Amino acid sequence: MSRYEALKLENQLCFPLYAAAKGIVRLYTPHLNELKLTYTQYIVMMVLWEDKQIAVKELGERLFLDTGTLTPLLKKLQLKGYITLSKAEEDRRSVLAAITENGLAVREEALKLPEIIGGCIPLNAAEMKQLYDLTHKLLRKIPESNVYKQEC
Questions:
Q1: How far apart are the C-alpha atoms of 131 and 108, rounded to whole Å?
Q2: Residuewise pLDDT in 10s, the chain (152 residues)
Q3: What predicted TM-score, i.e. pTM, was given to this entire model?
Q4: Are 81 and 42 in contact (CB under 8 A)?
């Protein structure tokens, strides 16, 4: 065995995860363009469709997004009239994102997306569930504190 075996692309878990995620986002893109959303805006909207209002800090934690990514994204959604941003009354340092009526209307248009995208993925329901479970297990096992550090 070559001492460089571990460096072969075919031996990397990160590559198929990266490429598959990129491919799935590419499947979403034309449909999200119709809704005038990027994929990252779409996942923010999914949280807000469910929660209606959330602290921006908590939103970033749930979506694994840092403030530098989240802030401009939220401002664009606010400009589109999909969300509002306001200071929390109990803690003026905390910013709240809340869904608007226009944002809720987009949810109606997005209802078709899971079925469309699901139909494009060549896995059966059991395989999709297994992949989902394993991916979430991986996310839970990678400590947030280590995400930006060089060592685990």
A1: 27
A2: 788 999 999 999 999 999 999 999 999 999 999 999 999 999 999 999 999 999 999 999 999 999 899 999 999 999 999 999 999 887 778 899 999 999 999 999 999 999 999 999 999 999 999 999 999 998 888 865 455 455 65
A3: 0.87
A4: no
